[in-house]
Design a protein that fits this description.
Porin, 0% helix
C-alpha cells in the first residue's frame, strides 16, 4: 500500500498490490511455494491450473489510508478513476509478458475526526483490470468494507487497519478462480508542510493472511514522498518505497525485497470534480531464494479522475 499511488497502486503503478496489488501488474503469489521444496515440485504460472494474480500485488489506491488532516470533522468522497497505459510485466515474475491495459476503479470513503484528533475511516472499492494483450489475465478486485483508525499528534500519526480483498480472475478458458485475502496493517507517518508543498515518510507493518498458505507474508514497508504545487491547479508527486518480506511458509527470515519509485503530474481541471493525471512507476523484485521469481517492472498510465466530496 503506497501513498500517492496512482494503487496504484498506484493509477498505473504496479503498484501493485498490486496491489498492488497492490498490487496495483500482479505478481502471482498463488504460486509462491516454500523455498525448501525440490525443483520438481515448483510450479510456474503458465502451468498452474489455479493461477490468479495476487490481489495484494495489484495496485490498490491507498492514498486514503494516510491522508493529511482536514478542517471539517466529517469527510466523504466518491471517486471514479479510469486509466489507460501499459506495463512491461503483467505477472511480475521473470520473463512474463507485458501488455497495454485499461483499469477502472470506483471508491467510496467516509471519515470522521474526533476532537482528540482520532480519525476513523471506512472505505469500499472495486477494481476492474483489463489487459489488452492478455485477456486471460484480466481480474476483478473488491474491498467490501475496510476500516482504518488513525491518531494524529501534530503532523505525525500512528494508524492501524484491516483490509479484506475479494478477487476473481476473468476470461480463463479453464474456469475463473476466486480468492479472499485479508491484510492487517500497523503504521506511522510524518508530514512536513512547506506552504502548499509537503514531504512525508513513514513505516508500515503488514501481515497478509492470504487464502493460499504459500502466499502469506509479513512485510516491512518504508515509504517517503514529496508533493510540489507547481501552481494552484497543477501538482507534481514523487514517492519511493522499500519492502523486505518474509513468507510464513519459509524457514528463512528474509525471502524477498521489493523496491519501487513513482512520479506523477496532476492537473486539477475542476477541483475536485475532474483531475487529469500522468504517472510512471518502476518496481524491482529481488527474490533471495529463487532467482526466477525476481523481476523488473515499468508501467505508465494516463488517468481520468472524477469525484464528488465534501469540502476539506
Amino acid at each position: 500500500m503506497l501513498p500517492l499511488s496512482s494503487y496504484a497502486q498506484e493509477t498505473a503503478s504496479p503498484e501493485t498490490e498490486q496491489a498492488e496489488p497492490l498490487p496495483e501488474d500482479a505478481e502471482d503469489q498463488t504460486i509462491e511455494e516454500d523455498p525448501e521444496l525440490p525443483d520438481e515440485m515448483l510450479v510456474v504460472p503458465e502451468e498452474d491450473p489455479d493461477f490468479v494474480p495476487d490481489p495484494n500485488q495489484t495496485p490498490i489506491e491507498d492514498d486514503f489510508i494516510r491522508m493529511p488532516q482536514t478542517q471539517n470533522p466529517w469527510y466523504w468522497r466518491v471517486e471514479l478513476r479510469k486509466s489507460l497505459g501499459g506495463t512491461t510485466n503483467v505477472d511480475q515474475v521473470a520473463d512474463a509478458p507485458g501488455s497495454a491495459f485499461s483499469r477502472t476503479a470506483l471508491s467510496g470513503i467516509l471519515r470522521y475526526t474526533f476532537p482528540s484528533q482520532t480519525q476513523v475511516l471506512l472505505r469500499s472499492q472495486g477494481f476492474l483490470f483489463n489487459n489488452f494483450n492478455l485477456a486471460e489475465r484480466d481480474q476483478f478486485l473488491a474491498i467490501p468494507l475496510s476500516a482504518t483508525v488513525t491518531q494524529w499528534f501534530g503532523n505525525a500519526n500512528v494508524y492501524g487497519g484491516y483490509i479484506p480483498i475479494l478477487s476473481s480472475s476473468l476470461n480463463r478458458a479453464d474456469g475463473n478462480i476466486q480468492r479472499f485475502d485479508q491484510d492487517f496493517l500497523l503504521g506511522a507517518s510524518y508530514y512536513y508542510p512547506m506552504g502548499q508543498n509537503y514531504l512525508f515518510g513513514g513505516y508500515q507493518l503488514d501481515y497478509l493472511h492470504a487464502q493460499t498458505d504459500s502466499s502469506r507474508y509479513i512485510g516491512n514497508l518504508l515509504f517517503a514522498g514529496y508533493r510540489h504545487a507547481i501552481r494552484d491547479d497543477l501538482f507534481w508527486f514523487l514517492d519511493a518505497r522499500v519492502q523486505p518480506r518474509g513468507y510464513t511458509t519459509s524457514s528463512d527470515f528474509l525471502d524477498e525485497v521489493r523496491l519501487g519509485a513513482g512520479t506523477a503530474v496532476q492537473w486539477h481541471v475542476f477541483r475536485p470534480w475532474l483531475i487529469l493525471e500522468a504517472r510512471g512507476d518502476y518496481n524491482q523484485i529481488i527474490n533471495l531464494t529463487a532467482a526466477e521469481r525476481s523481476a523488473s517492472i515499468f508501467s505508465f498510465g494516463l488517468n481520468l479522475i472524477t469525484a464528488l466530496q465534501t469540502q476539506s
